[in-house]
Amino acid sequence: MTSILSLHSVSKRFGAVVVAETLDLSLEQGEALGILGPNGAGKTSLFNMIAGVIQPDGGRIVFQGADVTRLAPSQRCRAGIGRCFQIPQPFLGLSVFENLCVTGFFGNPESSSQTEKRCVEILELTGLLPKANTLASSLTLLERKRLELARALAGEPKVLLLDEIAGGLTPHECEDLITAIKSVRATGISIIWIEHVVHALLAVVDRLFVLHQGRALAQGDPRTVMASREVHEIYLGVEADG
């Protein structure tokens, strides 16, 4: 497999707080990578560095073979790095379809007809087509999370960053969201997913990467990682047997 995104010795601190310490991370083409870690482990800072919201103090971020470490967030978005936020941030006064079009036109301003067609396809993929003309302000939490996912897809990302998108959902809603994310995976988009709802993560990802105090604690096969002593003691907060 070929890496589509990689971090090389990336470091970042805010005063005395270290959120990334010579961090190495790779995402393969078509892979779904899950990120776990206790609060304060550096997960959101990791996404902010990948998306360009904050700059690392050291190291490099490489996307599709190009160094994007100093690119602005808008440039990374157009290059193919999309992001879903933990708290959905739709344009509340616009319809669901209009929300997608805003993102779609930003990513491809020269082809309005193709953008609109693509947005309809995304509404179908995410189960939002019946809500196309509904104002975003009237959506349920699950529907807003679906819209957050759909808006990110409208930018035609090659890598999609999902930030705790299952948080706050009921078990049934979570299953619906898992189905939607699996449908997105089937299109070939590479995914990095930060999540505390572990069973949702395990239903989708190929590999887990566990962060602790800005360092890689464990990575590899999801079930092997979840069974490790270090993950039990630091992430789950319980002492492992044996």
User: What is the rounded distance between the termini?
Assistant: 36 Å
Q: Specify the number of helices.
A: 9
Number of strands: 10
| Mean of all residue-level pLDDT scores | 90
User: Major beta sheet, specifics?
Assistant: 6 strands, mixed
How large is the radius of gyration?
18 Å
Main sheet: which strands, in order across? 6-7-8-3-9-10
Question: How many structural domains?
Answer: 3
Note the quaternary state here.
single chain
Query: Strand pairing plus helix content: what structural class?
Result: alpha/beta
Give the helix level as a range of percent: 25-40%
The portion of residues forming beta strands comes to 25-35%
What is the N-to-C order of secondary-structure elements (H for helix, E for strand)?
Answer: EEEHEEHEHHHEHEHEEHH
What low-confidence regions span 5 or more consecutive residues with pLDDT below 50? 238-242
Shape category: globular
Summarize this structure briefly:
With 242 residues, the protein is an alpha/beta fold.
Question: What report would you give on this structure?
Answer:
- The protein is α/β, with parallel strands linked by helices and 242 residues long.
- The protein has 3 domains: 1-26 and 46-73, Rossmann fold (3-Layer(aba) Sandwich); 92-156, no CATH class; 158-206 and 217-222, no CATH class.
- The protein has helices at 43-51, 73-79, 96-107, 112-125, 141-154, 171-185, 198-202, 222-226, 229-235, and strands spanning 3-14, 17-28, 32-36, 58-63, 66-67, 81-84, 159-163, 190-194, 207-212, 215-220.
- The strands form 2 sheets. It has a 6-stranded mixed sheet with strand order 6-7-8-3-9-10, sandwiched between helices. Strands 2-1-4-5 form a 4-stranded antiparallel sheet, with helices on one face.
- Strand 9 and strand 10 form a beta hairpin.
- The longest helix is centred in the C-terminal third of the chain and has 15 residues, at 171-185.
- It is globular, with a radius of gyration of 18 Å.
- Mean pLDDT is 90; it is low at 238-242.
